């Protein structure tokens, strides 16, 4: 199992460690509910260095990325970032990712840890297939990523840099000195819905970054946050998690990723997806809330009032900030409209639930 | 790790307090620590008579669901209803206010099969 550059620090802090995507990762420190609350009301720091990073450079970089990504890469300005999807050639999703435009001809792809090898092989194979000549580098092993998230993140981190953090727009970034390090990527992105930054640095810089972030945040009661709270935070926002809500078999359109699927260009499987869009979807990923007490879990059946199976839960939890059972799941298209009545089969019980618009958590 | 000497234990990380023919049952400090923040305790077997090792309820943490197994055969004569509104009590006071059910024991000979504190401590490596 791999360690991040900070694993020894998490262990020294007494974190509960779990294997995740081949890495030894902190799942919680003081407890998931307290950590969740810290991010919703204050500021917390996550080590998410397990995430993968690829550099794509050269004149063909945009051509390769336009082909493998579903979103329109030409819309990304230098200093901008874009949520994206890698469709596969059988109707599913290779991965979801963020694409950063670092320079005129250079992009960074940030991919899920569990998919690094698969994505790398896929993008290289597509480059060969299409005869593109972009330069590809997998820099995952040498780079770390800290997410500093919460409504107090800007204020708590401002002393670490001359960049006006409040001026970095959502889904843009600055490359600048931070925490005594020469150049890091300060990105106004995140997976919590509570605002803040993600900071990319080299592994040898990670420990200094972690320490300075905790020092600067001390007056704001910054706390380290584990993967368990990362999951409850993202689920309250209705964000997809690869492996749960989307995978090699789920359609980007059925997963609700139509907003990052742009048919103004050709990309892997785009003709089929366009046809799917025109002929209508059979099922859709929806958010739902339980009307009674209970907690939906991945894999539970979604049933109609007669008990017929109409879908499946892909993510579920007790939402700490919304204080009810919430989840994401695929349902037959007839039940996908907001306010539809569905039921979740929880062990021997059938609990009524309502399809709702996400996010579940609203500031 | 707290393992009160006066209680009996099971390999499923439950504790049993014996008072006459009534057994109070909960989960151990070790179990609540492993589960993390407990958000729901569901017991729908009140007034039912169950065999030893049958599932009498479930405990849900944020990330996991675990079945609760009855340590001794008997009738479930009480459920700690305070847990419906405050399931986190299982985390904060697992051997006290975090108790789950009371069982009227039907087969006293089963008591001998429970672990004592020393044996349970060995099981969890305490």
UniProtKB/TrEMBL annotation, chain A:
Residues 284-362 form the Aminomethyltransferase C-terminal domain. Residues 7-265 form the GCVT N-terminal domain. Transmembrane segments: none annotated. It catalyses: N(6)-[(R)-S(8)-aminomethyldihydrolipoyl]-L-lysyl-[protein] + (6S)-5,6,7,8-tetrahydrofolate = N(6)-[(R)-dihydrolipoyl]-L-lysyl-[protein] + (6R)-5,10-methylene-5,6,7,8-tetrahydrofolate + NH4(+). HAMAP family: GcvT. Belongs to the GcvT family. The glycine cleavage system is composed of four proteins: P, T, L and H. This is Aminomethyltransferase. It comes from Dokdonia sinensis. The lineage of its organism: Bacteria, Pseudomonadati, Bacteroidota, Flavobacteriia, Flavobacteriales. The gene is gcvT.
Automatic annotation (TrEMBL), chain B:
The glycine cleavage system is composed of four proteins: P, T, L and H. PROSITE patterns: BIOTINYL_LIPOYL, LIPOYL. It holds the Pfam family GCV_H. SUPFAM superfamilies: Single hybrid motif. This is Glycine cleavage system H protein. One of its GO terms (cellular component) is cytosol. The keyword RNA-binding does not apply. Residues 22-104 form the Lipoyl-binding domain. InterPro entries: 2-oxoA_DH_lipoyl-BS, Biotin_lipoyl, GCV_H, GCV_H/Fam206, GCV_H_sub, Single_hybrid_motif. Binds 1 lipoyl cofactor covalently. Belongs to the GcvH family. It comes from Dokdonia sinensis. The modification N6-lipoyllysine is found at residue 63. One of its GO terms (biological process) is protein lipoylation.
């Amino acid at each position: 199992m791999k360690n991040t550059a900070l694993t020894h620090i998490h262990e020294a802090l007494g974190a509960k460690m779990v294997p995740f995507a081949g890495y030894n990762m902190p799942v919680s420190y003081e407890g998931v509910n307290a950590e969740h609350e810290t991010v919703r009301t204050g500021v917390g720091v996550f080590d998410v260095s397990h995430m993968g990073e690829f550099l794509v450079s050269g004149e063909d970089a945009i051509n390769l990325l336009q082909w493998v990504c579903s979103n329109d890469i030409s819309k990304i300005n230098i200093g901008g970032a874009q949520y994206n999807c890698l469709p596969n050639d059988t109707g599913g999703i290779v991965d979801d990712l963020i694409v950063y435009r670092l320079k005129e001809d250079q992009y960074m792809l940030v991919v899920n840890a569990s998919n690094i090898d698969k994505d790398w092989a896929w993008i290289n194979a597509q480059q060969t297939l299409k005869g593109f000549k972009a330069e590809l580098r997998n820099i995952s092993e040498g780079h770390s990523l800290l997410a500093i998230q919460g409504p107090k993140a800007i204020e708590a981190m401002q002393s670490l840099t001359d960049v006006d953090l409040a001026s970095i727009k959502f889904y843009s970034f600055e490359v600048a000195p931070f925490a005594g390090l020469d150049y890091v990527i300060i990105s106004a992105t995140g997976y919590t819905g509570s605002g803040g930054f993600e900071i990319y640095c080299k592994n040898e810089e990670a420990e200094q970054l972690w320490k300075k972030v905790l020092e600067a945040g001390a007056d704001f009661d910054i706390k380290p946050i584990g993967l368990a709270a990362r999951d409850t935070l993202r689920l309250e926002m209705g964000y997809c998690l690869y492996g749960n809500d989307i995978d090699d078999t789920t359609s980007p359109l059925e997963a609700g990723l139509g907003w990052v699927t742009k048919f103004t260009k050709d990309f892997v499987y785009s003709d089929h997806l366009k046809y799917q869009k025109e002929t209508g979807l059979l099922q859709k990923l929806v958010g739902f809330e339980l009307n009674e007490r209970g907690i939906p879990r991945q894999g539970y059946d979604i049933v109609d009032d007669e008990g017929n199976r109409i879908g499946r839960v892909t993510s579920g939890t007790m939402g700490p900030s919304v204080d009810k059972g919430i989840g994401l799941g695929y349902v037959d298209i007839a039940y996908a409209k907001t306010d539809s009545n569905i039921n979740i089969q929880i062990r021997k019980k059938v609990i009524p639930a309502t399809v709702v618009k996400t996010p579940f958590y609203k500031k | 790790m707290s393992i009160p000497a006066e209680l009996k234990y099971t390999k499923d990380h439950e504790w049993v307090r014996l008072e006459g023919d009534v057994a109070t049952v909960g989960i151990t400090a070790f179990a609540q620590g492993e589960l993390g923040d407990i958000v729901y305790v569901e017991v729908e077997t009140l007034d039912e008579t169950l065999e030893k090792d049958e599932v009498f309820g479930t405990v849900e943490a944020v990330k996991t669901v675990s079945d609760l197994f009855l340590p001794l055969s008997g009738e479930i004569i009480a459920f700690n209803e305070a847990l419906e509104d405050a399931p986190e009590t299982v985390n904060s006071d697992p051997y006290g206010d975090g108790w789950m059910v009371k069982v009227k024991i039907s087969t006293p000979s089963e008591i001998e099969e429970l672990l004592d504190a020393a044996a349970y401590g060995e099981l969890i490596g305490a």
